[in-house]
Amino acid sequence: MSEPFPAPAVPAAAFRAGPMPRTPVGAAQWVRAAEALGAGAATLASLWASAGEVHMALHDPGQGGVLILSLAVPEGRFPSVARHHPPAQRLERAMADLHGVVAQGAEDVRPWLDHGRWGLRHPLGAREEAGPLPPYPFLPVAGESLHEVPVGPVHAGIIEPGHFRFTAQGETLVRLEARLGYVHKGVDRLMAGASLARGAELAGRVSGDSAVACAWAFAQAAEAALSLTLPPRALALRLVMAELERLANHLGDVGAICNDASFAMMQAHCSVLRERVLRAAAAAFGHRMMRDRIVPGGVAGDLSPAGAAELRALLETVVTRLPPLVRLYDETASLQDRTVGAGTLAPALALRFGAGGFVGRASGRDVDVRRDLAYPPYDVLPPAVPVRTDGDVNARVWIRIREIEASLGLLRLALDRLPPGPVRADLPAPAGAAEGLGLVEGFRGDILVWLALAADGRIARCHLRDPSWFQWPLLEAAAEGNIIADFPLCNKSFNCSYSGHDL
Prior knowledge:
Radius of gyration: 22 Å
Number of domains: 2
CATH class of the largest domain: Mainly Alpha
Helix content: 25-40%
Low-confidence stretches: 1-17
CATH topology of the largest domain: Cytochrome-c3 Hydrogenase, chain B
Number of helices: 16
Strand order of the largest sheet: 1-4-3-2
Oligomer: single chain
Shape: globular
Distance between the termini: 30 Å
CATH architecture of the largest domain: Orthogonal Bundle
Strand content: 15-25%
Largest sheet: 4 strands, mixed
CATH superfamily of the largest domain: Cytochrome-c3 Hydrogenase, chain B
Structural class: alpha+beta
C-alpha cells in the first residue's frame, strides 16, 4: 500500500485468530485511499457503514493482507469513493439506502436496495416513515435505431428476481442496465442484537448455494474477534464441506451453461453428478446444502466412518464420469460456436473491479484467498488455482472444470489426512467489545464478513459482502456487443447471486 496509510495491512495470520484492528483516518486520508484505489494501487474489498462511521476495506496483494480504514461521519456525510473508483458506486448507494449517509461528490445517487416498499427510510439509521418512491430512473441512451427491451424482475424459470433493461440496435446489445434489490431480506438489521448462534444461521441463509462459505466467513470473523483457536479436525471438516459445495455448484453451472446453449445432454449428465454430490453431503453431514453445519467454534457434528466412505465413493464416481463430459464439451463444435467469444470480459475491467472467483480468474486475475491468505487448513492443503485470459463464456466454463478437478484432489487429500480429535471449541465468555474479520473463498469468489461484538457477546453490527457486488456490473459490460439471445448464456456463465447481493 502506498505511503498515506499509517497502518500495515492485516497479514494472513490474522485469519487464524485475533482481534481485527481498524485504522481511524481523516477525510484527507480517506480521499487519498480512494485515489489509490482508482490508480490501481489496491483492491476494494468492501465499503460499509455503522453508527457514526463509514469503513473501507482494502486488499493489498503486495502486502498479502487487508487494511480497514474508518472515517467518523458525525453529520452523515463522507467523500465519495466511487468518484475516484467506480466499483464503490453500488455499495455507496446501498449505504445511503440503509443508513442515510451521503457520499459527497457521487455521480449516481439513485436508490439501490430501497424500492420504496419498506414503509420507512434508512432502516439502519433514522428509520423515518416514508411512502413509495417515484419510478426508478434508468440511465438514458441516445442514438439512432435504438429500442429498449425490459425483462423481469419475474422470469420464466425458477430463479431469483432481477430486472434487466436492454438497449439494442437490431439484435445487438449496446447497453445493459440491471436493477436489483428485489430479494432484500434485511440481514444487517436482523443481525443487530442477535446471538452468535443466530448470526451464524442468518449468514448461512444469505445466499442458499453458498451456505457453507458464508457461514465459514461469519464463524471466522467471530473466532477472530474472540481470539479462538479451532481444533484441527474442525478445520479439516470445514474444508471438506466447502469443497463439496464448490463441486456441486460448478457441476450445476457447467450443465446449465450448456443447456442455455441448447445442449441439454450436458445438463442432464451434470445434474446427475450434482445430485450425487448433494446426496453424499446429506449422508455425511445431515443436510444436502450443509446448512448450519459450520458454527462459531467449529462444526456442528463429526464425520462418521460411514459418511467418509460415502464421500470416497462420490469422488470415485465423479473422477470416472467427468473426463468423458469434458471431452464432450470440448469436441462439440455447435456448443463451442455459442461459448467461444461470447460475453467477453476484458482483463483490465476484471482487475479494476477486483472480480473474484471464476469470473476474475477467467479474465486473468490470479487471486484466490484460499492460497493468498492461506487460512487453515488451506495453509497445508493449498489449492491449484487455474487462470485464463480469454475472458469469454468458454473461459468461465474451463475455469469451473479445472476447479472441479482441483476440488476432487483436495477432497481426497483432506479425507486421507483427516486428523482425530474434537470438532468444536467452547466459545469464551465475553471480555468486552471486540471486532473480527472473516474472508473465505466461496465458489463465486471471496466472501467478506466484518463483525463487531458488544460487551455482552451479542452482535452489535455485521457486514457481509458477497462477491456478486463486484461481478454484477461486469456482466453489464460483458453483455455489450452480444445479441439479446445470448444474454441468458452470458448471465449463467457469471451466475451472480441475487440474494447474496440484495441482503
